[in-house]
């Protein structure tokens, strides 16, 4: 999402795009951002004014669940803003109307060619905001304003009417300032953590995949898949990722009719992967099962537990190391106790070092969990095979 400077970032990005386009068509023209009643004072000979005259909240986006939250977690949704702009050209001297029309035409072509504000454009024009990290693009759309509405607008501006064109910028998502809560996970479900059991009766000529166990696995770990028809040829597990691509093909270590086991590589990136079993028959024909999701869990490394000191503003700064390294574009959170924290710095390269700021830190010892694309670092297992929270995966705040 983005911070509260996002509105100013959209305005500055629009000015930067329009300044380049208008300046090429009408040398010396300047793009301003003033209320219409103040434009006439000390304005250049040729100018285009970009005025944010109204903001509104998108109702459909407002009803969505907070981004990045999972069942049982709480958080405030982002503020989904739609920004309404009025573009007005100004010119003086001989042929002022012709010059104004040239400015308006150049501006409309520029916004037609920039129907979306690109992340790099936003970052260059507004380095003070993190709007460029917003996953949803900001789209620009021309808006038809009726004669009655435009008349009311200029009356409210208390300024003489000028030919103008209206655009809306949708959507600008501003993060809530209230922290979310991510409760610690359940350690066991039912007798011996077996949970509920189901045994579907699936049969047929095609291989089927019914389960991938465990649901979350470490890189270098072992996956067990269950289904039917795995004896129809040489089995391999094909992993694909929506961001990292693939496929990663893994040969079976052991394969039976209804079960096969596969070993994961140590350098497999953390996150949600799609897993499907591919069978190659003796005649060379291939059959693939449907894909199921499997989570590859990250792991906190380095000196643990961490130590941190409270700053004068009540915050604490944490730096953690992880394996495997996180990739650009992955969503990363460090959960301190029940407080999810986003990285302090955006990372554009693969990295195993992450820095976080805990704004309302509390003294004491707090459990640490690293979440990469909704997959959390794993729990420990005691000598009796029961899961427990790792004693070293923690931070001590003094």
Let me know the number of strands: 27
Number of domains: 3
What's the helix count?
6
Structural class: alpha+beta
Rg over CA atoms, rounded to whole Å, is 28 Å
Proportion of residues in helical segments: 10-25%
How would you characterize this protein structure?
The chain folds into three domains: 6-174; 197-296, Immunoglobulins (Immunoglobulin-like), CATH 2.60.40.10; 299-397, Sandwich (Immunoglobulin-like), CATH 2.60.40. It is built from six helices and 27 strands. β20 (332-336) and β21 form a beta hairpin. By secondary structure, the protein is of the alpha+beta class. The protein is elongated, with a radius of gyration of 28 Å.
Briefly summarize what is shown:
The protein is of the alpha+beta class and 398 residues long. It has helices at 6-25, 36-39, 59-62, 96-113, 119-125, 147-157, and strands at 30-32, 46-57, 79-91, 116-117, 138-143, 165-174, 208-213, 216-217, 222-228, 234-241, 245-251, 254-255, 259-263, 271-280, 286-288, 292-296, 299-301, 306-308, 316-326, 332-336, 339-341, 351-358, 364-372, 375-376, 380-381, 387-388, 394-397.
Break the fold down into its secondary structure elements and pairings.
Blueprint: H1 6-25, E1 30-32, H2 36-39, E2 46-57, H3 59-62, E3 79-91, H4 96-113, E4 116-117, H5 119-125, E5 138-143, H6 147-157, E6 165-174, E7 208-213, E8 216-217, E9 222-228, E10 234-241, E11 245-251, E12 254-255, E13 259-263, E14 271-280, E15 286-288, E16 292-296, E17 299-301, E18 306-308, E19 316-326, E20 332-336, E21 339-341, E22 351-358, E23 364-372, E24 375-376, E25 380-381, E26 387-388, E27 394-397
Parallel strand pairs: 1-2, 8-16, 18-27
Antiparallel strand pairs: 2-3, 3-6, 4-5, 5-6, 7-9, 9-13, 10-11, 10-14, 12-13, 14-15, 14-16, 17-19, 19-22, 20-21, 20-23, 23-24, 23-27, 25-26
